Sequence to fold (285 residues):
Amino acid sequence: MRLPYFIGISACLVVVVVADVAFDPPHTNFSIPFENHSHAQKWDLLDPAKDEEWNKAVCKGNKLMQAMQAGDSEAIKLYSPSPPTVQSHWKFPDAFRDWFWFVSDAAEVKPGIELLDEVWGLGDALRGIGVSAGPVEDRNLSGKNKVLYATHGWPWDEHDQEIDAKGQKYKVPGNTKIYRATDALMVYGINNEEGVMCTLIQLSPKFKVRYREDWEEDDLPELQKASDIAWGLWNYDEKLTDERRKSLRYFAVSAISNWGTKALIKRAIGNSPLNPWLTKEGGDK
Fold:
């Protein structure tokens, strides 16, 4: 069972944190009883980040914010060694096809998974920041969220039954090497109209083959970073205008299992009361 917390850490970034350690894909037949959840007790098990980890994270965040607000020529100077550009080199949606990623409408392939409120428990938090919590499939609720389901490999058989796509072979245009699918899965809620993106499931290629000794680093797809996948899905609608493309205001994560990240968030919250979902805004700290 998961309970979300919203923490606003900049003018354009929102993070959703849960107190659970493990993450499991959702089932459509559960609800989240906020009033009965022992979230405060679970949160107290975690110590806040120490100065070294905190200061490192603050510096990293400051650099990221400066890079986001600067032009490309100035942004590259913030990093050492300076990259040729800080802009994404991927061309979407072609990059998905080239690297054997299949992007589907989650409502069609996994009915129910598109319900950010009923299934993921994000409704109160989304409504709390004044944006839609409903899916685009339900216009009666003024839904604006499209959930996209990206898999590395084709995860269904001829009878439309879900299978493990791991090991499926493919080639990349201009490359003679034979790669294998990893069965990675990335699921994101996209609300281009109001500038909201929600990370729902994030099982990367590297994570999916972490116990396989026959999988080397160069066997993994070049398109594998969560940030690249997220940007590609944000831009997946080929009719998206430049204005909408640049309108991302909130980025949410439905479940965080990394203890280091949780410790940073607990320190950011400080002594704020732990309500069923909470927001906290900060400037450059």
